[in-house]
Amino acid sequence: LVGPLDTLTIWVEQLQAAIASYARIEGLADVPREEPRPAADPVDDRIEVADVRFAYDGGRDVLRGVDLVVRPGERLAVIGTSGAGKSTLARLLAGLERPRTGSVTVGGTPVADLSPDRLREQVVLVTQDHHVFHDTVRDNLRVAKPDATDEELHGALEALGARWIKDLPEGLDTEVGTVVSLDGARAQQLSLARVVLADPHTLILDEATALLDPTTARETEQSLAAVLRGRTVIAIAHRLQTAHDADRVAVLEAGELVELGTHDELVDAGGPYAALWASWHGGHDDQDPRREPGAT
Ligand code: ATP
After folding, report:
1. From the CB of residue 77, how many other CB atoms can be counted at a distance below 10 Å?
2. Strand, helix or coil at 203?
3. Over the range 38-73, which residues count as b (16 or more CB within 10 Å of their CB) and which as e?
4. pLDDT band at 171 (very low <50, low <70, confident <90, very high)
5. Is the distance from the beta carbon of residue 82 to the nearest atom of ligand 1 less than 6 Å?
6. How confident is the model at residue 118 (pLDDT cuts 50, 70, 90)?
7. d(CA 260, CA 19)
8. Amino acid 26: pLDDT
9. pLDDT tens-digit profile of 173-223?
10. How far is residue 191's CA from residue 95's CA, in Å, rounded to a whole number?
11. ipTM of the complex, rounded to two decimals
12. Is the CB of 80 under 6 A from ligand 1?
C-alpha cells in the first residue's frame, strides 16, 4: 500500500499547487490593468471654513465671516470681482495664512497645523508662480516625489500633453535654466506635472494655466481634470465657463460669501451670479460660453 499512497500524496500536492496557481491566475485576471483611484475619504478630506475673518498685517478685513464646506471629490468654482478675496481664500485653504478668527480645517484638523508632509498629501495650491530650478528635468520633477521612476515622470508630463519633453536634447537629463531655457508655458506644465506626481487629495487652482494659450490651457485643464478625477478641485475661476462646468459655484463679494450653489440653482435664484451669467449670455448670440473673456 505504501507505494501507491506515496504516489497519491504527490498527486494531491500537485493538484493543490495547480489549484493555487489557477486561483492566482484567476485573481490576476480579476485585477483591472489600472487600479481604480481610491475615492476621496468623506471624513478625512472634508474641508470646512467656519466663520473666517482675515486681514493682512492688521489692515481691514478682506474676508468677513466666510462659511463654506467643500465636499470631498467635488469641483468648486470660486468667482468674484477683482479684490473680492478669492486668492486670499485660496491661501487660507492651502494653510499659507491663518484666519484672524474662525477656522479652516481638513478632516477636523486646522490646515495650518498639518505637518508639511501631511499638508502636501492633502492640499496643494497651484498659482501662476512656478519655480524651475537650474537642474535636470528629472530633478525638477522629483521635488514632488523623490522616488518617482522615469516612467512615472514621463507619464506625468504626457498626461498633461507636454509633448515637448521628447524634443529636449537629453530628455529627462536635460539641464533646464542653463542648457535649455523653458518658456513660461512649458515651465507651467512642468509645475503642473509636479502636482500630478504629488497626487494631493485637494487641488486649488488659482490662475494655474494663465500662461498657456487658450487652446493649450483648455487641453491642459481637461488633462489635469482627468488625472485628478475623484480628487477635490477648488478653482478660482476667471472664466464663467469654469463656473458653468463646476459642481458648485461660490460667489465672493467684498470678502463675503454671497452665494453658493450649482450653476442652475444660482441662475434660478436671480442673484449676482445670474446677473453675471445673463450679461455675458446676452452679448453672445452663438451661446458658446467658451468665448466669454472673463468673470472678474
Ligand atoms: P483678483 O481677482 O484681482 O486676483 P482676488 O479676489 O483674488 O482679486 P485678493 O487677491 O484675495 O482678491 O485680495 C483681496 C484684498 O486683499 C484686496 O483688497 C487686495 O488689495 C488685498 N491684498 C491681497 N494681498 C495682499 C497682501 N499681501 N497684503 C496686503 N493686502 C493684500
Report:
1. 26
2. strand
3. eebeeeebbbbbeebebeeeeeebbbbebebebebb
4. very high
5. yes
6. confident
7. 57
8. 32
9. 999 876 677 787 788 888 889 988 988 899 998 877 777 777 777 777 777
10. 19
11. 0.98
12. yes
How many whole angstroms separate alpha carbon 274 and alpha carbon 265?
A: 9
CA gap 125, 203 in Å, rounded: 6
> Residue 292 has which C-alpha cell?
466669454
- By most ligand atoms within 8 Å of CB, the mutation choice from 54, 63, 86 for ligand 1 is 86
**DSSP secondary structure code for residue 59 in this structure:** -
C-alpha cell at 71: 465636499
> Is the separation of the CB atoms in 195 and 167 below 8 Å?
no
287 lines ligand 1 (CB under 6 A): no
Question: CB of 60 closer than 6 A to ligand 1?
Answer: no
Among 209, 205, 215, residue whose Cα is nearest residue 185: 209
